[in-house]
Amino acid sequence: MTARQSGLTRRQYLAASGAGLLAAGLGATRPAFALDTLRQGYQTNIWGMPTYYLMRSGHLEKHGLKFEEFAVPSGNLTMQQMVARQVDLGTYAAPSLIIGHDKGGLVGIAEIEHVGRTAAVIARKDLGITKLEQLRGTRIGNQVGSSIGNIFTDTIAPSAGLKKGDWQEVRMNVNDMVAALAAKTIDAAVPVEPYNAIAEADGIANLLTDFSPYDKMPVFMAATPDFLQKSPDTIVAYLKAWLDVARDFKEQPAKVAQVMHSFYTEKGYKMSVETFQKALARIEVNPGFPGDLKPYMQQQAEILLREKKISAVPDWGKVLHPELMEKARASA
Q1: Would the pLDDT of 21 be above 80?
Q2: How many CA atoms lie less than 13 Å away from 140 in the CB half-sphere?
Q3: Which of 3.40.50.12280, 3.90.1200.10, 3.60.15.10, 3.40.190.10 is the CATH number of 120-210?
Q4: Which of 64, 129, 151, 322 could form a disulfide with 123 if both were Cys (CB 3.0 to 4.6 A apart)?
């Protein structure tokens, strides 16, 4: 885990808002009331990159917000940090949100993106595996406890006739899976972008299926109940910043891609812009709160209950809070 604190210097403000606008008096106006510093958790795979962009875009500062950032390999780790009250906000898919609510009362404040096309089952190219059914008897790298790990073991593998015991689960973080495939210590893996695109581009693995035929996989921005109760005005300002991010994704996609690509190159990943753009094209970023989420969430909760991963199906009125996004849109 890494943590970084952000304030707002004049240099950062000028970079974010534009010196010309500031000189003309057209820069953002800070709210008259004080907003709380937020502790933002995010995952370093493609699901967390919209949040990474949010923190680098200047939109949080524009809305008077300061933040500390906490990076981890996958969202279920952010969820665990939030249950322990080490982080205030974080993104992850429905299974982790439901588990987080069961374990620590976590709540959803927005649906940020759909990522079903970004998660995949891949297999080593040299093995000639082309179908899920051929994974019987293989060693599969899986991030146990993550949303994609749960969906693979509870939904995708059974759909191919693979039950527990038909394959060997090798526990590892998604960011370690490409190296393990290249070293031939595993035969297949369940990673998420951009690692799928890297494995394909480097000739290490073939994609057997992405998750979209099984699950569109909405990813939520979640908050701790403590932070929601203490800082509702901060959360509304925060969601306004997300609406600005959505505009950037639509109107300035090249700028967004450049910021995200730099995250991986600075970490030492050798990935062309073209490979990253292929990975980014598989994510659908549209912050909001659709009205048809409850049937999907109910289905996910019933799976988790059957697998004994939660104690009960929750009250969705306590889990999902669309009123916050409504307030953000109304005052944007």
Answers
A1: no
A2: 29
A3: 3.40.190.10
A4: 129
DSSP one-letter code for 31: P
The 67-72 sheet, strands edge to edge: 2-6, 67-72, 38-43, 89-93, 218-223, 107-114, 284-288
Domain ranges of the chain: 2-24+34-115+218-331, 120-210
Task: Output 307-310 pairs: Cβ under 8 A, ≥24 positions apart.
Answer: 307/150, 307/154, 309/95, 309/99, 309/150, 310/98, 310/99, 310/102
- Pair 135, 189: CB distance under 8 Å: no
Q: Picking from 44-48, 164-168, 300-304, which range would have the lowest pLDDT averaged per residue?
A: 44-48
274: its two tokens: 């073209």
Q: Is 247 exposed, middle or buried (0-12, 13-18, 19+ CB in 10 A)?
A: exposed
pLDDT digits (tens, 9 = 90+) for 199-243: 999 999 999 999 999 998 999 999 999 999 999 999 999 999 999
Residue 96: which residues within 8 A CB-CB, separation 6 or more?
Answer: 75, 76, 79, 146, 147
